[in-house]
Amino acid sequence: MPQQDELKFGAHNAHFEPPDTLVVSFNGLINMDDVKRTSQLYRETFERHGQYYCIADIGRSQIDNAGRKYLSDNGRSEWFHAVIYVGADVVQRTFGKAIALAMLFTGKTSFETVFVATLDEARAWVTQHRSTAAQRKAG
Q: Domain 4-138, CATH 3.30.750.24 — does that match?
């Protein structure tokens, strides 16, 4: 997959894969500075590319309650086609769903929240979802 604009912040990194996918890999503790940078990155990606898929590899990371609340309060559902979490454990799945629910209450649109085991599965899900969405538009 072609990628551009590799961004590193703390132990984490992100890149955009055209036409419409942001891939973010988190490693270790996600502190409040990282959370704020992530929220800013999500907003900037929307402003630059429009609505997009966000693949968040969170299997090797941890975020505290304050960070989850910040993401819930500052994220917007209209930024995303879907958020695909990679490698989430049971606790991370619960909090991922809670963040999505909070964004839905503050946003104007809905989006899907998906959990998969690998980055390959995430990319395959995006490809399938993109194809289904295109068929709906055409039909």
A: yes
Token representation of residue 53: 């898929």
10 DSSP assignment: T
Dihedral sign, Cα of residue 104, residue 130, residue 50, residue 3? positive
Give residue limits of the domains in the chain.
Answer: 4-138
Query: Given CA atoms 15, 109, 112, 69 in this order, what sign does their dihedral have?
Result: positive
State the Cα–Cα distance between residues 73 and 112, nearest whole angstrom.
18
| Closest to 87 in 3D by CA, of 53, 58, 54, 120 | 58
Per-residue pLDDT tens for 12-40? 999 999 999 999 999 999 999 999 999 99
CA–CA separation, 59 vs 87, rounded Å? 4
